[in-house]
Specification:
Elements lengths: L1 H19 L1 H19 L6 H39 L7
Length: 92
């Protein structure tokens, strides 16, 4: 069981590192702002372009939530491993 916990802990730390990195934050902000600007500045007849920008913005948010979920799962796995080492199981 510790192998799976260790894997989740590692993945959680990696996700945290990504979310905390300046390059990720800068890229996320730049892409997000660019897409929002493109979306807002479409002409009325550019429906497909607006929808493409909106879908991409939603996908960007999904990526960040997914990384956040890996981070939370890693923290929970770390707590579980710590409890296991103390002889107490939080989850079976």
């Amino acid at each position: 069981m510790n192998i799976n916990l260790d894997k989740e802990i590692t993945r959680g730390r990696q996700a945290q590192d990504i979310l905390d990195s300046e390059i990720y934050k800068g890229a996320y902000e730049s892409i997000s702002e660019g897409l929002y600007s493109a979306w807002v500045n479409t002409l009325p007849e550019e429906k497909e372009r607006r929808e493409e920008c909106w879908r991409t913005l939603k996908l960007l948010g999904t990526l960040e939530r997914e990384l956040g979920q890996h981070m939370v799962t890693g923290k929970m796995a770390s707590e579980q491993k710590e409890s296991n080492e103390k002889g107490f199981r939080l989850f079976e």
